[in-house]
Amino acid sequence: MIQKNISLAQYTTFHIGGKAEFFAEIKRKEELGEVINFAKKHKLKIFILGRGSNVLLPDKGIKGLVLKMSIKGIIFQDNIVYAGAGEKWDKVVAMAVSKNLGGIENLSLIPGTVGGAVYQNIGAYGAELKDVLESVDVFDIKSGEIKKLSNKECLFAYRTSIFQKSAGKNYIIFGVILKLSTIFFPNIKYPDLTKNFNLYSHYDRALDTISKITLNEIRKAVIKIRKSKLDYPTASIGTAGSFFKNPVITISNFQFLISNRPDIKGRDLGNGLVKLSAGQLIEMAWWKGKQFRNVGVSEKHALVLVSYKKAKAKDILRLANKIQKSVKTKFGVTLEPEVKIYGKHGIM
Ligand SMILES: Cc1cc2nc3c(=O)[nH]c(=O)nc-3n(C[C@H](O)[C@H](O)[C@H](O)COP(=O)(O)OP(=O)(O)OC[C@H]3O[C@@H](n4cnc5c(N)ncnc54)[C@H](O)[C@@H]3O)c2cc1C
């Protein structure tokens, strides 16, 4: 079950990454104890991989044991869904929509696994996974115990969770329980969606029309918008979606920023903070569509870095670095990667 020297590029949507010293694909939760014992016996570090759609793995490979999570299974019981961590996230969304269960339709077509979705608290078009998550089943690498974490215990926030903090770094997610709704009100406040349903200028007066929009119509609209705005990985182009998080700054910093550049967009978070659009800042710094030898910035969306044939992690990192520096110099704003960047020994 445990293999040696396996190329990881094939397991990431950037198509980048050297070899794993040890590698195992986990198809049942019972296998976890066995592989963890192997890692403990040989003093190996453990790395978890879902679909690899939000990671940049090092060219030199990973020293330790990489576990690719492929635990399957989706069970619906009324409005409660249990999903294995290795299931495709979008399969869960498609099934929920077909059963007329609301809550995750705005999260359609996000690549990756259920486990990766929880780790990252995925979000799109005004929805986040945390809004429907009931509990998470985890295997504790340290104690070998199985635990159930409630939504509150997962410490979800913008693109983060306990699994990204030291308190949760020993947890392997193997299953998730979601609570969906049988009665739902379409969540189409996000401008692209409002526009799609031709309700742009009179959202408040159109409640009756909005209430008739079906889950399937929302899923279809989200898929259409995503396909028009994003590059999806193909055999020749790699991407991990948004490379940077949207920066959050104080209101006073925002006011200073727009006193020079009134066109900079910001969303008031209501707690003295404003969320900026990283994509807009990168575009305003003239990076959109820029192509280099093996890597580039998407022509469709400035927040998306793309890799071409023979691209290396170091090429992506060099480009990301240049973008960060130019946005910092132009606007004084720090861009933080959303993609998890790994070194030989773990997340950097
Ligand atoms: C074209 C494209 C569009 C995207 N759009 C969006 C979007 O709209 N919104 C959004 O939020 N994200 C988006 N993403 C990013 C990505 O798809 C999500 O973050 C996804 O949830 C990652 O899942 P994964 O299985 O690929 O995780 P991976 O990339 O394999 O792993 C990501 C991190 O999660 C950890 N992890 C994965 N599985 C487990 C597990 N079972 N237990 C413990 N830790 C685990 C890994 O160790 C790693 O650190 C996009 C990516 C692409 C390529």
From TrEMBL:
GO terms for biological process: cell division; cell wall organization; peptidoglycan biosynthetic process; regulation of cell shape. It is found in: Cytoplasm. One of its GO terms (cellular component) is cytosol. Residues 15-183 form the FAD-binding PCMH-type domain. It catalyses: UDP-N-acetyl-alpha-D-muramate + NADP(+) = UDP-N-acetyl-3-O-(1-carboxyvinyl)-alpha-D-glucosamine + NADPH + H(+). Pfam families: FAD_binding_4, MurB_C. Its EC number is 1.3.1.98. GO terms for molecular function: FAD binding; UDP-N-acetylmuramate dehydrogenase activity. The active site is at R159, S242 (proton donor), E338. Signal peptide: none annotated. NCBIfam families: murB (TIGR00179), PRK00046.1 (NF000755), PRK13903.1 (NF010478). Cell wall formation. This is UDP-N-acetylenolpyruvoylglucosamine reductase.
